Amino acid sequence: MTIRVFVTGGTFDKEYNELNGELFFKDSHLPEILKLGRCKLKIDIRTLMMVDSLTMTDADRQIILENCKSSNENKIVITYGTDTMVRTAKILGPAIKNKVVVLTGAMIPYKFDSSDGLFNLGSALAFVQTLPNGVYITMNGKYFHWDNVRKNNGTGIFEEL
Amino acid sequence: MTIRVFVTGGTFDKEYNELNGELFFKDSHLPEILKLGRCKLKIDIRTLMMVDSLTMTDADRQIILENCKSSNENKIVITYGTDTMVRTAKILGPAIKNKVVVLTGAMIPYKFDSSDGLFNLGSALAFVQTLPNGVYITMNGKYFHWDNVRKNNGTGIFEEL
Amino acid sequence: MTIRVFVTGGTFDKEYNELNGELFFKDSHLPEILKLGRCKLKIDIRTLMMVDSLTMTDADRQIILENCKSSNENKIVITYGTDTMVRTAKILGPAIKNKVVVLTGAMIPYKFDSSDGLFNLGSALAFVQTLPNGVYITMNGKYFHWDNVRKNNGTGIFEEL
Amino acid sequence: MTIRVFVTGGTFDKEYNELNGELFFKDSHLPEILKLGRCKLKIDIRTLMMVDSLTMTDADRQIILENCKSSNENKIVITYGTDTMVRTAKILGPAIKNKVVVLTGAMIPYKFDSSDGLFNLGSALAFVQTLPNGVYITMNGKYFHWDNVRKNNGTGIFEEL
User: What is the pLDDT of residue D53?
Assistant: First the structure.
C-alpha cells in the first residue's frame, strides 16, 4: 500500500525570508518531517502548488480534485492551509467516494519550534490508514467528516457543527 | 469519549541531567506535547512508573496489565520504551479483548530536537480512535498487531514478522 | 557591574500569530534567552518599544538615545531590527562617548529553530563587557564601529565600509 | 585574522544513540552552529579528540597544550567538557602567554533544544577577539581568568574563587 501526499502549501510550509522579513514558500518540509518521524510507510509526495490557502482559487481547488480523482492510490493526505480547508473539503467530499482523503495543516509553521505540524502529520497518516472511504479533516488530534466541521476563527480550533 | 494515557517512562521522557551528564526521568512531557499539538481530545494521563524499559520487571508489567483491565475508558495509549515494548504487548494482547490499547514510544527523547515523539504520539492518538478492539504497537507511522511485530535491533525499526 | 538591555523589537522578538498568520510582537524573549544561556550576569531589561525597525521613527530613535544617556549603567546592549540598525547607531555614535553600547538583532526570529538570536545575544553580552567605550553593532560573530558598517541588503550580512 | 577552534568533545557534542539509548560522540556540531549563527569570522576548526572530559588524561591535556603552542593563530577557542575545564585551563594558563585562549562548553548537549551551546559559542568567539593575551574560561555569559575560577558542582555554575 502506498499513501499519496499532495502538498498545497499553507502555514505548514511557510518559511521566514531573512532578507525581507516576510513569510514565504520555498520547498515542502514533508520529506524532512517524515524522516524526523522515522516514518517507514510507502509515501509518494507530489507538490500541486505552494500557496497561502486564503489566496487559493476555485481553479486551484479543481486541480486538487482532479489529482485526487486520478490518483492510483486510494489513500490520500493533503497538506493545506487551515483558513479554507473546510471549503476545499466541501468540494472534494461529494465527488470522492471510493478513496480515503485526509486534509491536514498546521496553525504554526513547521519551522517554528512551537509548530503542531509534526503532530498533525502523524495523526493524518494514521487516520488515512484506518478510516473508511470518505473525505476528512484532521486537526487538534481529532478527525471530522467533511460535512460536519468548521474552523472556529476566534479560537483557531476545529469543531463539529 | 475520553482517551486514557498511561505513562511508563522510556526514551520518550528521558531528560539530560546537566549536573552529572546522565539521562534521567523527571516528569512526563505528555501534557506539554499535547499542548504543542493543540490536541483537543479528552485525555486523562496517569503516570504508572518512570523507568527505562530495559529495567522493567514482570511485576511492572502486571501493574500495566491491571491498569488496562480496570480502566473505565476503552481507548488506551501507553507510552513506553521501545526496547521491551513487544514483550509487554505480548502480555497485554491475550488478556485484553474489549478495549483498544496502543503502545508507542520514541527512538529519541522528546527533549532532543530530532525526536520522533511528537509524530508518534499523533499517530497513536489517531489509531486508538479508529482501530478495532485489540492490542497494537505504533511506531514508524505504522501500526502492528501485538502478535505480529518485532523491533529490528540492528536498524531500530519495527517490522512485521 | 550591571548590564542594561534595552529591547526595541525587531525580528528578534517576532512571533507567529496563529489566528491570522501574521508576524507580530507580544513580549520580549530576552528573559527566556538569558535563562537558556544559563546567563549569570547581572542584567536589567527594559522594553522601550516593540516595533519593526522599518517603521521606527526619528522620535523613537530619540527615545533610545535619551535612555542610553540617562542610564546609570555604562554597559548597554540594545536588541533591534537589522534593517535600520546602522541608521540608529549613527544617531547614538556621536552622542555617547562615555559608555559601551552594543546593538544586535537577528535575521530570523528567536522562535524559529533556525534563529541566530541566541548566538548574537551571546556575542553582544561578551562584547559589551570587553570593548572600550563607544557605539558598536554586533552581527555575524563580528563587531563593527558605528561609523564603519553597513548591512548588505543583497546578502543580509553586515560588513565594513 | 583567523580564529582557531579546537574541538575536544564534551557535553557540547554529545548525541543520543537511538539504537542503544546511550550518549555518544559522532561529529562535531561546530560547523552547524557557526552556520546557524550566520558567523562570518574566518575560523579554522580542528578536532583534537572527541571525549567526555571526565575521561580526559594528562596525555590528552598535553596534546591540547602542544596544539595551542604550535598554532599559527593567536586567537584560540577550545570546546571542552565542563567537568574538567578548570583543570585543563590550569595546564594551559602558565604555559601560554602570547595568545588568547578561551575554553567553553555546554551544560546541555547542542542537540537538545534546551542547550546553552549556541549562546556560549557566541560569547567565546566574542571574548577571543577582545580579551588581552591569556587563558580564560567563558560560561554563563561571563569570562574568568584561568587561575580565578571553579565550577560549583552543586549548581553547575562557574564562579570566581
Answer: 86
pLDDT-above-70 percentage for chain D: 100
Separation of alpha carbons B120 and B115, rounded Å: 10
pLDDT digits (tens, 9 = 90+) for D9-45: 988 899 888 888 888 898 899 999 999 999 999 999 9
Q: Which amino acid is at B97?
A: K
CA pair distance D27, B116, nearest whole angstrom: 21
Neighbours of D60 (CB within 10 A): 18
Cα separations (Å) of A132 from A74, B22, C121? 11, 46, 52
> Tens digit of pLDDT for each residue in D133-160?
999 999 999 999 999 999 998 999 999 9
> Does residue C119 sit at the D interface (CB-CB below 8 Å)?
yes
- CA-nearest residue to D107 within chain C is C38
C-alpha cell recorded at residue D56: 580526559
| pTM for the predicted model, two decimal places | 0.90
Q: Which residues contact A127 (CB under 8 A, 6 or more apart)?
A: A102, A136, A138, A143, B126, B130
Residues of D in contact with B111 (CB under 8 A): 112-114
CB atoms under 10 Å from CB of A151, counted, come to 19
What number is the ipTM of this complex? 0.95
Residue A13 near residue A25 (C-beta atoms within 8 A): yes
CA dist B133 and B144 (Å) reads 13
Residues 6+ apart with CB under 8 A from D121: C119, C122, D30, D33, D34, D37, D77, D79, D104
CA distance linking residue A77 with residue A80, whole number of Å: 10
Q: A130 — phi, psi (to 5°)? A: -125, -20
Tell whether B129 is within 8 A of chain A (Cβ). yes
Residues 10-49 of B with CB under 8 A from A: 33-34, 36-41
Residue D151 phi, psi dihedral angles, 5° rounding = -95, 125
Asked if C97 and C25 count as a contact pair (C-beta separation under 8 A), the reply is no
Phi-psi region of B2 (alpha: psi -120 to 50; beta: other; left: phi over 0): beta
For B40, B47, B71, B99, B103, the CA distances from B44, given in Å and listed in that order, are 12, 10, 11, 16, 16
Question: Residues B106, B131: contact at Cβ < 8 Å?
Answer: no
- CA dihedral C49→C52→C54→C57, nearest 10 degrees, is -20
Asked if residue B142 lies in contact with residue A40, where contact means CB atoms within 8 angstroms, the answer is yes
| Rg of the Cα atoms in chain B | 15
